[in-house]
Design brief:
- This protein is about 80% helix and about 0% strand.
- With about 100 residues, it is an all-alpha fold.
- It has one domain.
- It has helices at about 1-20, 20-60, 60-65, 70-85.
- The protein starts with a helix and ends in a 12-residue tail after the last helix.
- The protein is elongated.
- The longest helix is centred in the middle third of the chain and has 37 residues, at about 20-60.
- Helix 1 runs antiparallel to helix 2 and helix 2 (about 20-60) packs across helix 4 (about 70-85).
């Protein structure tokens, strides 16, 4: 399914590049890239906090991390960051429009 999505995305982006002058295409692709990076930041934040919730519910950080393919160290780092964010009440990154 992910391969199909990437293939469709590639086709859409290629159409964008082909339909516009190079500088306009570059500006559009730059904007799309920025939007995708903002969505990735939010997804990563939500994933960290879901991991923390699962660890608190299950009690075994390494096992919970393995269920999504994380090493013990990576799971530990993500849980630690989520704990820090909660302790300091760091809100989800909602982009520049939310500021």
């Amino acid at each position: 399914m992910m391969d199909l999505y990437l293939t469709q995305l590639h086709g859409t982006l290629k159409e964008c590049v082909d339909a516009y002058e190079p500088l306009v295409a570059l500006e559009r692709l730059n904007k799309i890239d920025h939007q995708l990076r903002e969505k990735l930041k939010l997804t990563s934040y939500m994933r960290r906090h879901a991991l923390l919730d699962a660890v608190q519910a299950e009690g075994n950080q390494a096992r919970v991390g393995r269920t999504i393919g994380l090493s013990r160290q990576r799971a530990h780092d993500m849980v630690e960051r989520a704990q820090f964010e909660r302790l300091h009440k760091i809100e989800p990154p909602l982009g520049e429009s939310a500021v």
